[in-house]
Amino acid sequence: TSSDSAVSxxxxxxxxxIVDNDNPSLSAGFVQTxxxxxxxxxxxxxxxxxFVNGRITQPVALSVSVAGGTATVNxxxxxxxxxLQFNINSDNPRRVFYTINGDTIDEPDETIVFQxxxxxxxxxxxxxxxxxxxxxxxxMFPIETGIIVLVDGTPEVRLExxxxxxxxxxxxxxxxxNALCTLRDVAPQQDCSSGTFVVTGLAPSRIPPxxxxxxxxxxxxxxxxxxxxxxxxxxxxxxxxxxxxxxxGALVFQGDVFIAFSVVGPTTSTECQLDGGTxxxxxxxxxxENLSLGEHRVKVRPNGDNCVRRIxxxxxxxxx
Length: 320
What we know:
Residues 24-139 form the Calx-beta domain. By secondary structure, the chain is mainly β. It has three domains: 26-136, CalX-beta domain (Immunoglobulin-like); 145-231, Immunoglobulins (Immunoglobulin-like); 238-319, Immunoglobulin-like. It contains no helices and 28 strands. The protein has strands at residues 26-30, 34-38, 48-53, 60-68, 77-78, 82-86, 94-96, 99-100, 110-117, 122-124, 130-136, 145-151, 154-160, 166-169, 178-183, 187-191, 196-199, 210-217, 223-231, 238-243, 251-253, 256-264, 269-274, 280-282, 285-288, 294-303, 309-310, 313-319. A five-stranded mixed sheet has the order 2-11-9-4-6, with no helix packed on it. Strands 20, 21, 22, 25 and 27 form a five-stranded mixed sheet that branches. It is elongated and about 105 Å long.
């Protein structure tokens, strides 16, 4: 015989949940992309900050590196690549620390360009992925004694140790009989037909550059030449240099550049540096050949144990 038998099935079910532990869509950038920082801030380089937008569920590391600028690494500032760590639910933003090497050198403001980079999945905000820090020169204006000599009608600037006195010497061409000289807003106009103009009693302190003006007159009293030149006055014991090749300071021909300068103060020793390289001795002139196209920079600094301060000068030029 046969008999039916019952078969029972027990069906069980389960749900597997895959937890997404990746960070949701994140973006990052610098809080400020243009930051000014006084040179004397030194180690307090915390004015530059970076942030991450979005909910952080896994640690995020952003890297900050130096990508350019006019400041010289290990001279004007200390270069160290920074890693900014953003932990889960961490506070934003993070500070970028760097070292500004302050000095007593009167020089133009200089810049550092910082570049932000991050892991995959973190989008850098295009206009906030780089930031420029401007090192603001806050050194006292030096005061240098200036002598301006006119050679065939062309002014040539020479500088000597500072005493709070400006002495201008020049030679008049034969058709010039009279000359009037002044330091604009500092000393009144006076006759300087003898070829010498002297102003004394200028305090060697925070005096900005002064403007020397010479008006040359012919026999009929008509002005036939006018020269305006900005000069500085220097503290006694300061050592500095003055570029002689006009306002730009450099004579550039194709890939060659020639720079001439005079030495100020109790020293005759100078060193020159091209594009952040090594300082090498140079004596009142320096020449570089076959330079690449683009912008270049030369720094000239005086040396000498008798210098109270060494005031460095910088000239920038472009090879095209």
